[in-house]
Write a structure and sequence with these properties.
37% of the residues lie in helices and 12% in strands. The chain has 67 residues and is an alpha+beta fold. The chain has one domain (10-60). Strands 1-2 form a two-stranded antiparallel ribbon. Strands 3-4 form a two-stranded antiparallel sheet. The longest helix is centred in the last third of the chain and has 16 residues, at 45-60. The structure holds zinc ion. Zinc ion (ZN) binds next to strand 4 and helix 1.
Length: 67
């Protein structure tokens, strides 16, 4: 084992769909900051829409990689 350039796809930075910030942790395309923002907003319409979309994607297998 040598070299610090091992490609680790699990640790890749991925841009958040909403704010575009590169982040290691995402849940259904959104970074933790965006989820916190929509989850604690006075109007939680964005959060509910995100949850509804996730539910659809789980059921269809889109989010779990089943398709
Ligand atoms: Zn974000």
């Amino acid at each position: 084992m040598s070299g610090a350039t091992v490609n680790d796809p699990i640790a890749e930075l991925i841009a958040c769909r909403d704010c575009g910030q590169d982040c290691l942790l995402q849940v259904a395309d959104l970074c933790a900051d965006c989820i916190a923002r929509i989850g604690t907003a006075a109007d939680d319409a964005d959060y509910r829409a995100w949850r509804t979309e996730n539910e659809r994607r789980v059921v269809t297998g889109e989010l779990t990689g089943a398709i």
